[in-house]
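During the reporting period the student researcher (J.K.) took over the structure-prediction task from the postdoctoral fellow and processed the backlog of single-chain submissions. One of the processed entries is reproduced below for the supervisory committee.
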Amino acid sequence: MATLTLTTELADTGKRLDVYLSEYSEGFSRSYAAKLIDDGRVTVDGKCVKRSYKLSGEEEIAVDLPDLQPLEAPAENIPLDIVYEDEDVLVVNKPRGMVVHPAAGHSSGTLVNAVIFHCGRQLSGINGVLRPGIVHRIDRDTTGLLMIAKNDAAHQSLAAQLKEHSVTRRYVAVVQGVIREDEGCVDRPIGRDRKNRLRMAVDAENGKRAVTHYRVLERFARHTLIECRLETGRTHQIRVHMASLGHPLVGDVLYGAAPVKWATEGQCLHAAVIGFIHPKTGEYLEFNAEMPEDMQKVLAKLRSEA
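J.K. obtained the following structure tokens:
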């Protein structure tokens, strides 16, 4: 059984323990964190507390992670576009339409099913049996690069880098409308949309801080190709932020994009670059993935119109 040790900061004061743990890693769900707390596997300064415990800052949290159970998500022989692999880390280029991990309505055909087939039991167990190795996620219809942790030590290192905002994550997207400024920053909190649970929304009262930096790569007659750099990693962050500026992503009808026949199936968004410090060697690694063919066709269409 491995023990995960975290030290809170003054900025975490007042935060619920289960919320704090869920923010440790984008793949570390709040329900899984709550179960660990309820099972007595989490202590704060050596004492067991409830999931609703409010942090006071500068406390030491110890999490006794259960031994990895036999993986419940079945292994499936699904082709993977592997960009990099060693004994600690796997970097894959996820295609459009693939869900990252099993969930309601998606019990098979996910990236996790494919990774289990490829790696066997050599995966981090921190996020439980349905999310082995998952440190962060991208949406089903977003393409591009993802890090997979092949052991708990690698998971802890990568998750800590994500929490410190030191992982390089750059996306390319095509948005509606022509953005006039060459670059900008959106610093608006994001939370669950109160009227539509399928959506996220800018929510100053209940949202979590979200920061997206963007710059224009190419302008067309009625659209713009941009690069976005994530400082935080909230659900649907780029989609919500660009829609809040009046520039929803092409193909993203959930956030107000006008439907067009030549758009991609889903949002025109690609995780093009990811960079991180290797958990074992300490070397900085950075990887690039070309835009998928359907996005390249969209750009060709827009360039022909321009």
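The committee noted the following: The longest helix spans residues 293-305.
J.K. will present the remaining backlog at the next meeting.
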